[in-house]
Write a structure and sequence with these properties.
With 362 residues, the chain is an alpha+beta fold. The protein folds into two domains: 1-66 and 329-362, Hypothetical Oxidoreductase Yiak, Chain: A, domain 1 (Orthogonal Bundle), CATH 1.10.1530.10; 74-186 and 227-316, Ribosomal Protein S8, Chain: A, domain 1, CATH 3.30.1370. The chain is built from ten helices and 13 strands. The strands form three sheets. The chain has a seven-stranded mixed beta sheet with strand order 3-4-5-12-6-7-8, with helices on both faces. The chain has a three-stranded antiparallel beta sheet with strand order 1-2-13. Helix 1 runs antiparallel to helix 2 (32-47) and helix 4 runs parallel beside helix 5. 48% of the residues are buried.
Amino acid sequence: MKSEETVGTYRIDAGTARRIVVAALAAHGVDDEARTVVADALVETSARGISTHGLRLLPRYLDDIERGIANATPKIRTIRETGPTALIDADAALGVVAGTAGVREAVLRAAEHGVAAVVVRNSNHFGAASVYSRAMARAGMVGWAMTSASSRVAPYNGRGPLFGTNPVSVAAGEGDTEFALDMATSEVCLGEIRERGRRGMPLDPGWATDADGHGTRDVAEVAALSPLGAGHKGQGLGMMVTLMTAVLADAPLDWELAHMEQATPGKGREVAHFLLCLDPAAFGGRGAFDGRLRDLVHTTRGAPAAGSEPVLCPGDPERDQEAGASRDGIPLDPDTARALYALAQRHHIAAPAPPGARRRTP
């Protein structure tokens, strides 16, 4: 970890970050495979610049295990299946562990049947949805991932939260031909609201509403997030995600889910996920798919720009962030840097101290 006081961030190399996550989860009774899965997901997410869903979540996940909200040693099982479909009970696993189990099931079934739909219930916080869609893409598939979430978003013309931020992620391809869409169905995620609050910055117009349902740029006044785009379309997309996750899984709806910080000790949050996996070979053919995807991505990037900024494809900014993180280290906010440093000390992992961190005495 090295400080960059001029920009107020700290950086950590991916290997050190991964070792810290693995050691912390091991100390909480998580088995080797599961802690590797979580470490890879959190490091990948932070490296791609999605800091709200990356390493910052580690202390929360550890707290969930300590309070019995997340099961460190779940017995994940398939409770209903056909050839291309499966319903999985995650036994209150960490959401990353549950989601990864769903991905594996989806890829295996899609390889046999051309398409697979897997629904996961009785899970916890999912993290970044692109972790799962991109995993399916790396297996040569087209991957879709969605998750239910506790209510943060007001309905269009409504007052107060009702729906979750309910993300949708679709991915295909790899490298410079990768398409990797990952978006909330709200204008912005709650983590970005909190980040603006930590920095003392106003919100962008249209991000959130106050208790009366009026737009606000003051973090202290936020009662609900706003649905994406024109509002009614964002609400429709958010409801679609709830349909494909909680409704299909016979799981709690968004407003029935406890927020992470308010979950009942000893009880999982019962979050539901949806994973759709398609094998291009079963449709237009692998070679045709690869060629068409390449044309789609490269033609889009080459479109004439209206100004100084180029035309981008979904996933391009994150790939650029990942390249920078590989070269210079993963940027962390000060609170996350101090939390990781404290865990590094506790587990005897070498990591330079960020400013303001306290060194443990032997």
